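CORE FACILITY INTAKE
Project code: CF-77B
Contact: R.S. (postdoc)
Sample description: multi-component assembly, two entities in total
Requested service: structural model of the whole complex
Turnaround: standard
Below are the sequence entries exactly as provided by the requester. Do not edit them.
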Amino acid sequence: MASELLQLLVDGLTIGVVYVLLAAGLSVIFGVMNVINFAHGELFALGAYFALALIAPFGGSAFFVALFVAPLLVGIIGVGIERFTVRPLYGRNPLYHILLTFGLVLVINDLIYLIWEPGSVTLPLPAVLSGSITVLDVTASVYNLFIIVFGALMAVAVWAMFEFTKYGLIVRAGAQDRQMVRNLGIDIDRYYSLVFGMGAALAAFAGIILGGYQTVNPTMGMSVIIPAFVIVVLGGLGSFRGAVVGGLFVGLVQTALRTYAPIFEGTGIFVLMIGVLLVRPHGLFGTDAGEEHAGNLLSGPRGGFLDPQTRTRLGLAMVGLLALVPLGAGTLYSTYAVTLVIEIIIWGLFALSLDFVMGYTGLVSLGHALFYGLGAYAVALGLSHVSQSAFVVLALAIVISAVIAWGIGFLSIRVSGVYFAMITLGFAELFYNLLGQLEFTGGSDGLFGLSTYYGLAGVGVELDEIAVFLGPVAITGQSLFYYIALAALVASFLLTRRMLNSPFGAVLKSIRENEQRATFIGYETTVYKRRAFVVSGALAGLAGGLFTLNAGYATPSLVDWLNSGEVIVMVILGGMGTLYGPVIGSGIFFGLEELLTGFTDRWRLVLGTIFVLFVILLPGGLVSLPSRLAPALLGAPGRGPNPEPEPESNPDPEPATDVDDAHTRGDD
Amino acid sequence: MSADPLLSVDSVDAGYGDTQVLRDLSLSVDAGEIVSLVGRNGAGKTTTLRTIMGILQPTSGHVTYNGADISALDATETARQGLALVPEERRIFPDLTVTENLELAAHGGTADDSLSVAEALEMFENLRERAGNSGSSLSGGEQQMLAIARALVSGADLVLLDEPTEGLAPYIVQDVMDIVAALNERGITVLLVEQNVQVCLELADRNYLVDQGQVVYEGTAAELEANEDVLDRYLGVTA
């Protein structure tokens, strides 16, 4: 028994040390720069691949050289990333960084595929580190012990650097109050490159270590980034101590669960994270002092470049144009066009639902795929157990998503900012892992082979059996579904727009502008935010339900965090806080994907590069393009009340805290 | 007093976004003086300090320090010229110890640190006792002392003090006033924002009365105290 526990300890610590090194950089980068770095996992993978390349020509004995040279190289890449892509975004909303680093994930990951072979490779180890030692019935491989000792030394070195050097002092102070560090005459921006580079190097160390323990493969970054986020949040954003404790703890818990309760291996850490955040909203070692005002929300130009009448006409024309798509399918172009536009419409609806909560209340849900998946599974399960009526199961999808959204909103809206994003991500990952475990949802295969009819109480039709004839064109099957999806999108758009023009919407907008003041006026803002979240969840559920109705299956991959990331990308791409922008964003996203896959296998590399350039060059989203281009094209400034995008017109990159503002601006 | 003021603010407009707070505001501070800005909530006192410090940039007008135009400088650069802002909320680094808070300040500011960390701990005896404690564990009065000490250690010649006595118990207010007087004796110039008129009357050589983003009155403590009309109209205190 004792030896078994010791064995567990050795295995758990091995993984734990990897997590510590990975999470430390991520945490400090967030604490100091307010950057949520999704690309951290890819830098981790890059470390392993660089080591692989360095070791390959010389054999295992080059391992020790690679252990230092590869992190150095990745560190230099990190400095470059900060200097050329992250730096232009300082002072803007952290959401820009999500889009930016999401783009970087695509770029780096695809580069790995481009340069190295796609499968798993083992990292050659030196002879000294192979073999194992047995002490008191406990067998530990030399490599594991090396990891634990070496990792611990690294962690101590980093800690000492933070604790005892001028550099460390400035970085720690920056994580607590950046503006005050500037007020003291310290150019904190100069330290950012170093912080980012150091974080990247630590991630690379972790990548090499894990690569030697398991294998090196292109998805290793993707699989490790979510646990790393959990650890960072668990320990407290920006806290090095938190990253160390959280990393070791999660490593041990995961190993113990794998041994004793494999069912909970995937879900355990998310339950843990959600639980900790509910009790301590800033993590175990976090302080709320480090959290900054959310900054400028990146909404599209309000009022916009075109007057309302023209916009209504444009909208109607767009819908009209979309309505024509199925008519030419099979004759003017392939029927694939209908499939593609259905995907755009469904994801457009999904993106619209996210915009309703993100663009109008400032709540960034990083796990919105949860509701998409809920809708999909509600439809799938409804079809097999409740009714085959499409309308019944869609209603079921909406209701279930709304109820779960209420529950999650109730639990998580009390935490704010990045913590809210993380807690929603936690719920989504929890659901994702549950889906893979549960029998009645079909496990990791999901549910498929579903059939439906359109009607109620057994009276209705199947889309394949009927056809509507418009002159020479017969519309049937998927083309009929196309109109159902389009109607759902238009109805959702009108519904949400109607809500936003109501007093309810006015409160939401005031929350977005300044939540504290909305509270001062007497609104219970959490209630309003929760209502918005429920509406958003319900619409996302509708989108997921439509997907399953059309595709005939539901799988856990619908809830993958990449989907949550992609839908945020669409919202930002199109223009947040506009409702129609995200739909355009969806069109651009799938359009680009479609276009690029036709040209190259490395389309994600191109797509990622476009995102990175986009976020640096066009921060207001695509809908801001007309008012930006107007002066150049027409020779006159764009009309609209706010032709200049927000960030440039604000001279203060970090607005004062609310209290401060209220004080100065108060008019009594 | 010398011919050229240490700090002069000339016809400055400034504000937040579309909201203009300062309208054609002018004032000057000579080396070695203690000058106060008094006025009601929302008059623009804090905004004046933020604009001098470079946290806000003036939309028109100039800020001149030591004969050089510092209007376009940001907070980091102004701090290196020898200005230090002690903000209203004090903004002590909560997870750094008292000593670390001071050491950080020593790394910033001007190159010649008139006061070392050790000397500062010598000067502020209640901070010396708590040197190893974290900033968040300090009382309001101790935080205020630390914020002032931090400005000294950074090597500032002009300290901008925003409401140093706000929220402090009366006997601690006296401690803070003593410290302000003590730094002035060390040759440090002070621009003080206060709502407590008594503090201003006692400490300041000259007072500016700010209302709706403009200077509406300027005078010595004796002059201000004698001017019941001004006291009543702008400050709501009847002497």
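Facility notes:
- Chain A is about 70% helix and 5% strand.
- The longest helix of chain A spans residues 2-33.
Invoice: internal transfer
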